[in-house]
## 1
Amino acid sequence: MLWAALHFPCLPGETLQQIAAWACQFTPRVSLEPPRALLLEVEGSLLCFGGAQGFFGRLREGIAAMGFEASLGVAPTARAALWLARGGGETLEELPVEAACEGEAQVFLNQVGIRTIGELRRLPREGLARRCGQRLLDDLERAYGRLPEAREFYVPPRRFAAHLELPAEVAHAEGLLFAARRLLVRLEGLLAAHQAGIRRFKLILLSRKSELPVEIGLASPTRQTERLAQLLRERLARLALAHPVDAIRLEAADFSPLHERSGGLFGDAAADAEDWVQLVERLRARLGPAAVYGLATQPDHRPELAWRRIEPGDWDAREFVQPGARPLWLMESRKIQETEFTLLAGPERIESGWWDGDEASRDYFIARLGESLGWIYREDGEWHLHGLFA
Amino acid sequence: MAGLEEILQRHPVWRGGSFARLAAALPSGYGELDRELPGGGWPTGGLTELCGSHEGIGELALLMPALARLTSAGKRVLWLAPPHLPYAPALAAAGVDLAHLAIVQPPGRREALWAAEQALRAGSCHALVAWLRHARYADLRRLAVAAESSRAFVVLFRPPAAAHEASPAALRLALEPAGGALALRILKRRGAPLAAPLHLVVKRPFHALGRAAFPLPARRDAPADRRVGLPVHA
């Protein structure tokens, strides 16, 4: 067994559990050591991250990305790793006794001139137990692996909620991205622990006077901090804040399973589809959901109803029945004078819609209008331009 | 003369009449046009500009074979800021698989440029057909750079006056009507200039084009003639 301990010199309340949830992406065996330390059993995980160097590199990067500082201790036992993280030394022997005990025991040991764990270990055991309690003696045995230590492992929750106080009030929505990213990193860790992704999340901007929820929907489940942050950036760019924000909260639930896919070398259709979905999602985040759409045909004889807007990609070619000649541009129909055009072909009579009250009875012609080829119709004796054969 | 040919064969002499080598080109579906385009088709990974003298002269029909080929192969196509409604039944009739087509309507020029860059950065957009009104040279430059870093077929429709302006596009065509056909002048290509315009017969309602205009049908007394109609194409 190999234990890694993380000791946080300063930590806001209730954050330890969230860091534990984040750390569950590295190993399922994460144990809390309140108030300010975490213990990770990492022996089985090292290989997955390319050895100890890669693993601890990733661990440190992640902690920095969340905006925390931590000291790291690594040892074969949990207790020793914890003391090393607290004491910040190379070997257990050299550690100051403060790493191992506190309160009365620590004061007593200092008074009798015991400075390091090594010195502590050389003291007579019975006397030490009498003076400082059996607990310190047991901890010492556990650190050296002569007594087993039973630890309870943390089970990450299936929902995410994290709060972050901003160091200063922020008046521009875009300025919140930096802080939000720290929370997104935590979210990514928790999702990785569950091998899950999310389809939507909510960032709540808190000010003294109000709460402003910003909801972001995704086209496909993901947990990548970069993708989430990019969508958030586009949304925040469009947002005008009424009050300066002094804290943010990030919430996400409804985790959906996300399977890792190996990237294809070239022409990977699945990767292409995923990339497309993300492009549509990015465009919509900035331009609004209605600005991006797909087209579909619809079985209706009235030309203006023979198409509809759809989600891009939602069309089934089997629903298409080839009509007569149709123009590539359809226009808002506008009246034209008989002198403006010469007829080339027609008529094609379209009579429809009597059943839904929007009755149309028109004769369509192909006509030349100046240099262009137009699609015009006559209804009630009036001529209208309805499209261009572009 | 045989000696000259031999020298040209042996030495790496670049001749003005040959085209620049392009990595990949997309067949336009019009053989006469492909022969005149470097690479034998529409350039991918470069900006193409089309300056049409009018609307409704077959400027979209010119692109349809290429777009039909792309979409039916499962490649996605994006139309950016079209000036009118692209009519789904006509697109489907031209062979475009609408499942692989998306339309983007940005509110303004800056958003349109941004959207174009996003689309070209994404590898999944294989063709971008864009209309930019009041594009400045700097905008075109940005678009051309984005197009060159992608592998997409990028077409930009420009107003007729733009044919006389400088542009960083890799290929520029001016389109004019010529009877029933479409006349293409190649304003710029990576290779020797082409003096004579090309006349292409693009796919439009043919039966209408060859015919002489006929007089307006007699005006019927509309209200009297209106009855409850049945859908005639049912």
Note: Chain B touches chain A through 67 residues (CB under 8 Å).
## 2
Amino acid sequence: VTALPLVVEAAAGIAGVTAMAWAAARSTRQPGLSPQAARKAAQADAKAGRWEPLIRGGWLHKISTSAPDPGNPGQVIAVFTDPHGLAGQPGGRVLIAADGTPDADGHRRLHAVPVPPDIRDPLEAAAWTYDDPTHPVRCTPAVYAALARRT
Amino acid sequence: VSIPNAIPPPRTPPRPPSVLDSIGTSDYAALAEVAHRPLIDHGAGLDATITALREVLADLEARRLHHDDAAALVPPVPDPDGQGPDVPVLDGVQPQGDVAVFPWPSFMSPHIRHAHVTAAVRLPAAGLVLLGSHRLRSGLGPPCRWADWPTDGLPSLGTLVVPPGAMCRMTHHPADPVHRHGELRIGPGVYAVRRQRRYVPAGGGLVFD
């Protein structure tokens, strides 16, 4: 137990090393990278659409439960905050959803779509991204939940 | 005089004729005519009436179109894009990446819907390309039609009309073929076609894929 926050860095793959932590946060920094370099690498990942390592690395914070993605069997959607502004405005919220079609190599890409800051429910967030308030046909959460198929 | 048997015998035993045989799915005049024909002949007696009603029920049951069966009912479609033959024909909400089709029921804003349906023109044979990578084209039966949504800068792109008996295909042709989305097959109906939007603090934005 330490009185002040302590940064622990360990190279992966060292046998016999176990770390236990209470009230800890996973660092967004990769070991050996300066904060500026880590941020630059994260921005490059975001620009290229590589969201999985960013989520694993703690760059986005999940604020909703994961809901099943309608029309996309086996996949989930969730709402995250984006404190570093990797997808949109710093401090905004993003919907994370998986592609309906896996890539040619079998990998399924994740997408981050910025959503309004008052939306926390993943289904509401997903419906918002396909809604057009000026069109007679709206995409409400109920409409999105009845989605037939996503590719 | 012996008459040669020019007509080969049918492979399956013929089904007894039904009142619904004369109508096709797009033949609304015939449908209306059948709909107004009295099913019950008061002189025929109860047994004959029950038989007639049972026959109609059986026919309706046989013609009921489930979403899962719809793909099996349409003839095989040439598949030059190699997307696989198992793409189901659906009439519900279907997104393909950042573009989605939403069925537009006839009771929903009928005047606006009617205006767009009548303004819709035939899709070009080569297809209509949306957002540079999504291609809409008629897949089967009568040609599908399209009307642009009039206001620029909104997520709505246009109105797609798939006539009865037709099917519309939406294929995806991105610059990087690794990130290609699967094909959609869209059954008869009127659809609002829309792109995905993303939030920007000043107002709604759009996603490019």
Note: DSSP finds four helices and five strands in chain A.
